[in-house]
Amino acid sequence: MAALTPISRKPMSVVLPAVAIAGGFVGMFVGAGQGSVLLGIVIGAALMAGLAWLYMNVLDNERVARWITILGMGVLGIVFAGATGLIIGLLVGWFFAFFIFWLYEGRYRQKLLPYMTGRQVFWHYTFRVICGAIFVFLITPILVVLPLSFNAQDFFTFTPEMLRLDPEGYSLKHYRDFFTNNEWQRSFKNSLIIAPIATIISVSLGTLAAIGLSQSHVPGKRAIMGILISPMIVPLIISATGMFFFYSDIGRFLEGTLGMDKNFVGYVKVVLAHAVLGIPFVIITVTATLVGFDQSLTRAAANMGAGPVRTFFKIQMPLILPGVISGGLFAFITSFDEVVVVLFVGSASQKTLPWQMFTGLREQISPTILAVATILVVISIALLTTVELLRRRSERLRGLSPA
């Protein structure tokens, strides 16, 4: 096999604009922290473009340039933001030292097809940059909340001690308040009661609906599907208003006619309302799983004498179980995080964790909200990771991906 020919170095007209754009993007965040976004963009773009020009025309030594950039950015970071700035500066310096020579020496083409045109290469990386930028803007608010939950002060901002990474600036007191405060614990227990029951109802009804709609002889399947998933489409405030009037009549019937306890009826209304919100997620995930389901298996089971119930639990359920569990997890997250509907349908006795967080923001301005938000983020990440693992298992069972 012939040796690979080295890729020619790129001109400054290609490297400098790209480095300047990347420097301006980083400078935007630094400038936002210092109170001037525009100035941060300009300085970041000019600084990185100047370094690229210097390395390409004067130094031309990647190892030396790497250490100069890393140490220089580290010094700037510690001057402007202390220990935290040092860490960020070292990471930024490492990235730009790599990025400049990655562009200059044309290494970005090494893993691409050799016949790709310059425009195709440009859009190849532009798509990835756009996806990365979207990811950064989505994940940054979460990354801000996590360290703030350990703030030793009752503030919603980073204190100087936190920026210096001083241990005295960090504390677990907000977490202790969450686990010892009666109001927070009562709302947490309410969420743990309501969400699982609503999830069970959503999974039961949603799975049956998805299986029914997967049959070819069902008339008006599209219209029925549209109605069943409408809670996902209709604005939540409209759904909450409709549920308020509907479940008010049900509540009066249960309390007045059947003589049920008012508090119990309140839980029933909230559970049913949350189940309605969770059913569309179950229908969509189970329907997607049934797309690859071989209907001849159920016909074979019927020919062998198995009844519909036995066929469902022995044949269908094991194969669609990943989709059922995925839909159940989405329904659980929806119920656990929902606040608008419970404000309309529930009462103070059914105050859930999101309701308590809303109250804490509106009335008390309690920093414990940050600790609760961190706990919810961890729970959501764990559940979504489980969903992804189940999705991959479902693809393997249906032969869509290698084992």
What are the main properties of this structure?
403 residues; mainly alpha; MetI-like fold; disordered N terminus
Q: How are the SSEs ordered, and which strands pair?
A:
Layout: H1 12-34, H2 37-59, H3 62-104, H4 118-148, H5 160-163, H6 173-180, H7 182-213, H8 221-228, H9 230-233, H10 236-257, H11 262-290, H12 296-303, H13 308-337, H14 340-345, H15 353-364, H16 368-397
Helix pairs in contact: 1-2, 1-3, 2-3, 4-16, 6-16, 7-11, 7-13, 7-15, 10-11, 11-13, 12-13, 13-16
CATH fold label of the largest domain: MetI-like fold
Overall mean pLDDT: 84
With helices defined by DSSP (H or I, 4 residues minimum), what is the helix count?
16
CATH architecture of the largest domain: Orthogonal Bundle
Order of helices and strands: HHHHHHHHHHHHHHHH
Can you identify the CATH class of the largest domain?
A: Mainly Alpha
How far apart the termini lie comes to: 33 Å
Number of strands: 0
Largest sheet: none
Classify the beta-strand content into a percent band: under 5%
Give structural notes.
The chain is mostly helical and 403 residues long. The chain folds into two domains: 12-148, no CATH class; 181-397, MetI-like (MetI-like fold), CATH 1.10.3720.10. Helices cover 78% and strands 0% of the residues. The protein has 16 helices and no strands. It has helices at 12-34, 37-59, 62-104, 118-148, 160-163, 173-180, 182-213, 221-228, 230-233, 236-257, 262-290, 296-303, 308-337, 340-345, 353-364, 368-397. The radius of gyration is 28 Å and the shape is flat. The two termini are 33 Å apart.
